Fold this sequence. Notes:
Layout: H1 5-8, H2 13-35, H3 41-69, H4 76-99, H5 104-130, H6 146-160
Helix pairs in contact: 2-5, 2-6, 3-4, 3-5
Amino acid sequence: MKLNNSTLNKPSSAYILATWGALIIGVLSYLIGLWxxxxxxxxxxxxxxxxxxxxxxxxTLQKTVRDKEEGLPVTQIFVGMCWAAFASAIAMxxxxxxxxxxxxxxxxxxxxxxxxxxxxxxxxxxxxxxLTNELGETDPSAFPKSAQGIDAAVETSEIIQ
Length: 161
């Protein structure tokens, strides 16, 4: 039996929708929690910047590791920079939360929503890459239909309220 390589790595639409849903929940929960927190504005800025750094570093690291596995040229310096940025973002969040004067449950909330968003952004990027051809064109199935996205957003907002 011969496997069709073009569909071998193609994720199902249910999986794509689930990963986008997890990303939306992770990002929204972190940002809404940050917005509603009693942190000073400079602390909110710190946690927001750490979040953005972590999200970008996670996607870049995932892409770099996959490029390397597929035999595409990747410099060791760039791989090292990706790992350093990713580790720095996680370390800054952990150190910030350890030193924050908030309840342990709040620290757990930020940690869990941060990890959910990181895992989801890596998975969404992997799905997008799996559905991108050699010309750089991404199959529209990599993105949930707008109606599904709106339904997911409405459900998420109902859960939060």
